[in-house]
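User: Some background: our group keeps a shared notebook of sequences we're curious about, and every so often someone picks one and asks for a predicted structure to add to the entry. Today it's my turn. The entry only has the sequence so far, pasted here. Could you supply the structure so I can complete it?
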Amino acid sequence: MFKSKAIRPFVLSSLIMAGVFALTQSSDAKAAAFGGIIPGAGVIHIPVTNMIGMHFIHVVRQHTDFSCGAASLATILKYAFGQNVDEEEVIKGLFTVSNPAEVKKVGFSMLDLKNYVDKIGLKGEGYIVTPAELEKIHIPVIVLLDLGGYKHFVVLEKTGAEHVYLADPALGNRIMPKEQFLKDWNKIVFAVFGKGFEPHSVLLSPPEPPSALKLLHGILPNTKVSPAHFGFNQANYF
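Assistant: Of course. Here's the predicted structure to add to the notebook entry:
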């Protein structure tokens, strides 16, 4: 049994460290400050990203229950076209080409997304795609999923033989079994074309979602994706 005098320095040190540990205000990326660790070193600042932030790397997060379409489009514009946009800006733009009362009931439609994209000088097109053609798509596209009656827009980043990679504005980067995806998906993809498109977009090489299980087993092999040559001819992509 330890005597109280023996554990007192350890307890005191722990309290000092706990007292000086702080996270600076930021959405996901924060700075951890540690003091009293190395004598004479002062306070050490270490950048950290919380687990939620790790899920949303290269994903614009939705902040309302009707803005999954806006956040998905913002993800495409920001990470595939290099535009400095956020969810709020895209929402404001979408409201100029949609019926606000209808949006508050069912959210933005794919037609709203197209009208807004066309308005800002790009080109948005929806295509009916067969399951066999999914793996031929080498640009990030927006798809609509029916999750138990809840219609939800996500960005389809790439497709494998058994899984699909999604940039989900509600859940972040995630990998979905292809079989389940095909059940939930309405067989339509919405693609954005135009000036500024980055054929080597980071969306084509999505990060692995943080997971202890994935660290042990993994889900998909680290395959290299070759982006398609950019152009307006849909035959180049499907």
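Suggested note for the entry: The first strand starts at residue 22 and ends at 23. Strands lie at 22-23, 29-34, 44-49, 123-128, 141-147, 150-159, 163-168, 172-177, 185-193.
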